[in-house]
Specification:
The complex is a heterodimer of chains A (359) and B (309). Chain A has 359 residues and is mainly alpha-helical. Chain A contains 14 helices and six strands. Chain A has a domain at 39-267. Chain B is 73% helix and 4% strand. In chain B, strand 2 and strand 3 form a beta hairpin. Classes of the chains: A mainly alpha (359), B mainly alpha (309).
Chain lengths: 359, 309
Amino acid sequence: MRAVSNVPDLKTPPRWLAFSLLALGLAVLPFLVDAGMGRSWVRLLDLALLYVILALGLNIVVGYAGLLDLGYVAFYALGAYVYAWLASPQFGLHLPFWAVLPLGAALAALFGVLLGAPTLRLRGDYLAIVTLGFGEIIRIFMNNLNAPVNITNGPQGINLIDPVRLGSFDLSQSHQLFGYTFTGIHLTYYLFLLFTLMVIFISMRLEDSRIGRAWVAIREDEIAAAATGINTRNLKLLAFAMGATFGGLAGGLFASFQGFISPESFNLMESIMILCMIVLGGMGHIPGVIFGAVVLTLLPEALRYTGDWQRELFGRIYVDPADLRMLLFGVALVAVMLYRPAGLLPSTRRRREFADAKG
Amino acid sequence: MDIFLQQLINGLVLGSVYALVALGYTMVYGILELINFAHGEITMMGAMVALAVIGALALAAPGLPGVLVLGAGLAVAIPVCVALGLVIERVAYRPLRHAPRLAPLITAIGVSIILQNVAMLIWGKQYIPFPAVLPQGRHAIHGATITDVQIAILLLATGIMLMLILVVQKTRLGRAMRATAQSRQVASLMGVDANRVIAATFAIGSALAAVAGVMVSAYYGLAHYYMGFLLGLKAFSAAVLGGIGNLGGAMLGGLLLGLIESFGAGYIGDLTGGFLGSNYQDVFAFFVLIAVLVFRPSGLLGARGVERA
């Protein structure tokens, strides 16, 4: 039933109010978290935003276009290494971040196309395995390209990477603004939030565009999509490139944030983690993906508290909580898939698909 | 020392281990079209359990002959792995048999995380050395050496594979497995209990994985809670190389991958003028995998033109 248009809707608050409340909430969130839970959780908040960017990038490839990519972390690594090469003592280059970030994203996009082109014919599990191999190849090269020419500094990684700097404003230092003290991690939060909002905006606009609908068509039935005049080859390559661009962007941000990168940060587990974020949250559904990314970033940290529970229950710590959390993480993965296979926050379309599959 | 012959021996030994693990992947994929990501971790569990038993026995009864101790290790590891395989299939895969393909893939990943961390909690993070119970004989042939352990691995792997072929080709269970792989529905109509066949497939694959795990740890002289991961990936590559779903293909693919790795690692330094060294050994499996999937997605022995998507 349609509401009569001249009667004001009193139950749901107007959109602008909801948006300004959300904006206010996001703006003060790091301070609330800092006051309530400690500084390490603000850092986690920064990381969570980074993972939201990564998850939304992979969501384009897996969620929209239905191409299962298990090597996504390779693009993340490329973005990070490009940043490290161009803004650290490794080669003595110190380019500003606004020049380096797009370069890293562009190189990642190029590799996305390079990976996509030979794998266009593959689908499903096979694609998953090829992309997985690609991710491992990139990691092994990063690990070994320190001799005879030292490019990546091998397993030691690259250190002393420049933080994000705008003129003389160094984002890793504390600053006094409007009478408040903003530490580096607080400022990073706002920088990451800016990029995250940009990526969310692009994802939302893509979802309802011709391109987004074409991707969904390819995901549902590639042959039918081709028959309706969709250029499946170009669109699949575009999906790889778009996803890789976001991955490269996140990589650059990660390098500037950490100040140190090594191949260890870009192993297969990381790819799997990002995939789990979108599957657990609800594939192809932007709020679900964001939710999944935030939950999975914070969950392993929250599981650290199992040490306190053990002490309360048994009087002593039986198992080191750091060892226990990955185990619980695995259990959570299996349990969610068994009981909520469409994800925790699925899109309406997928919920319907799963309901059909059951009946 | 003759490098060529030495790399040939190393490649064959390593390859036969890959083949054993690859068989587990290929049998499950042939029937369920599911990548059993946890298979590598079952291999690791086999190695860990066997090592624990062998270590305990070697302490308790130092006089026992090595073969007997090793046999005891296998005798415990195989049932443990079979039970693990059955439980995993029942809990993590069977409820999702009609779900979209990503769902069982994610549970498989979850199960392998669980197994890795359970192993880490039980046996710790350090490398566990293989107890010195095995004969340490070395034989020289034409400038290369082959150890007793390598000979044993080759013989055992060949014997197991022959037995597996016999089971699949000659027995009732084997026929049921082949029928289920072709079409689960039609096989069910002919009175095959598909669930039992699938469980049997997991049991056989897990038993092979247990043996392979013991072999790998005997070959390298150590075991580690993370060893199943790379081994599983390589074995899967081998299964794809041979043509997934095809038993002979898994054996061929395993052997080929072992040879490619050992020759690749042995000669890559000369070929690239010293630019790339043997530390790139692990890359070959993935390059082979990508090349096969791009140029011949059905694998060497797989049926052509069948689209599996």
